[in-house]
From TrEMBL:
Subcellular compartments: Secreted
Entry-linked CDD domains: M4_TLP
Superkingdom to which the source organism belongs: Bacteria
Domain named Peptidase M4 C-terminal: residues: 175-346
Record's protein name: Neutral metalloproteinase
Length: 402
């Protein structure tokens, strides 16, 4: 599917299909309508509205349109632009501010000029359809539903949801990760990672004080759920009779092999993303401080170095290499990356398991966070390799004696 036809939705299909089993007819109908509307959109080419008063392309300029509960984007009306007055509509204002916060995050933290790195304009559409339980990026613009008011609320309420969707745009203009199987799960994980980093950056939260939740604001107060997903604890974001239990794995041993179909979530892209999500969380916690600094930079540079079919293993290896390039071999940052991927069941290529274990133990002794001296780390690596060589020499000697 071409980039302009791809819909990256924040609500995964398994949640909407679960709502189809509800005993509440209104909940079932809203879920069905959302699935049908999303399916129709996937079958159409995305068309951007054209208005004489809209902001010109470039400089990351924001324009928000009001769909007035319609489904056809060209019929939306201009609601707020960079030059015009602020809207009285709270959804419009939240969307406008959310697009700006995400743009400013990429500009100030990574010196990236809008999503494409060249000042791409940012268009947002609010009040899409009636009771639409989703928000999505379609390759050109950001679209928000108001929710059904029973399960989901207005999707503009969550800054990490806005940043998550816009980050799909960044991925399209860098690695262009295919939206299926492991590359697709990595695609979703990248959006979760930078979605939560935008929220943490805007609130000036450290890794230790952040909640690491995605979409905590999209559920109505009547729903017993923390959020859509948790990077800190994949598989524990919700657990109730209506939605079931969060099915995200946090380790490769729980990897879900699902059909590469729309019903199968394109091979489980919203589910298996829990594994690299947990790896980033563990990396950030081991390094400590602000997660958008060293951990975020390592992930951002690794995204730029990735390609369309990059797997979890590929990305893990790249983060390890980038940590070395950015902070030197054996640095606390590189040790944090190594230990984090190992903890989710992915061994960095070319690093002996014994060395990885020794480094992980060293990080654990250091409290899991902080900066370990590079010479100490190197000495540990040499010691571990020496022990392995010594063990092999003894085995060879024993064989010769026999």
């Amino acid at each position: 599917m071409s980039r302009t036809c791809r819909l990256n939705c924040i609500i995964p299909p398994h949640l909407l299909h679960k709502l189809l089993e509800s005993e509440d007819s209104e909940v079932r109908q809203a879920a069905l309508d959302t699935l049908l509307a999303t399916s129709r959109l996937r079958g159409e080419r995305a068309v951007r509205a054209s208005f004489a008063g809209a902001a010109a392309p470039g400089n990351g300029r924001r324009t928000i349109f009001d769909c007035r509960k319609g489904r056809f984007l060209p019929f939306a009306v201009l609601a707020q632009s960079e030059e015009g007055p602020a809207s009285a509509d709270e959804s419009v204002k939240r969307a406008f501010d959310g697009l700006g916060t995400t743009r400013d995050f990429y500009g100030e933290v990574f010196q990236r000029h809008s999503l494409d790195g060249r000042g791409m304009r940012l268009d947002g559409y609010v009040h899409f359809d009636a009771n639409y339980n989703n928000a999505f990026w379609d390759g050109r613009q950001m679209v928000f539903g108001d929710g059904d008011g029973r399960i989901f609320t207005d999707f503009t309420r969550s800054i990490d949801v806005i940043a998550h969707e816009l980050t799909h745009g960044v991925t399209e203009f860098t690695a262009r990760l295919a939206y299926h199987n492991q590359p697709g799960a990595l695609n979703e994980s990248i959006s979760d990672v930078f979605g939560t980093l935008v929220k943490q950056w805007s609130l000036k939260q450290s890794a230790e004080t952040a909640d690491w939740l995605i979409g905590a604001e999209v559920f109505t107060p009547s729903i017993d759920a923390d959020a859509l997903r948790s990077l800190k604890a994949p598989g524990q974001a919700y657990d109730n009779a209506l939605l079931g239990k969060d099915p995200q794995p946090d380790h490769m041993s729980g990897f879900l092999n699902l059909p590469d179909t729309e019903r199968g979530d394109n091979g489980g892209v919203h589910l298996n993303s829990g594994i690299p999500n947990k790896a980033f969380y563990l990396t950030a916690m081991r390094i400590g401080g602000f997660a958008w600094e060293a951990p975020g930079l390592i992930w951002y540079e690794s995204l730029k170095a990735s390609s369309i079919e990059t797997t979890f293993q590929d990305f893990a290896d790249t983060t390890y290499q980038k940590a070395e390039e950015l902070y030197r071999a054996g640095s606390a940052e590189q040790l944090a990356v190594l230990a984090a991927w190992q903890e989710v069941g992915i061994q960095i290529s070319g690093v002996p398991a014994g060395v990885a274990r020794a480094r992980s133990l060293a990080a654990a002794r250091n409290g899991g966070v902080g900066r370990e001296d590079g010479l100490t780390a190197l000495a540990q690596q040499i010691g571990a390799l020496t022990a392995q060589v010594s063990g092999l020499a003894k085995d060879v000697t024993a064989l010769k004696e026999k």
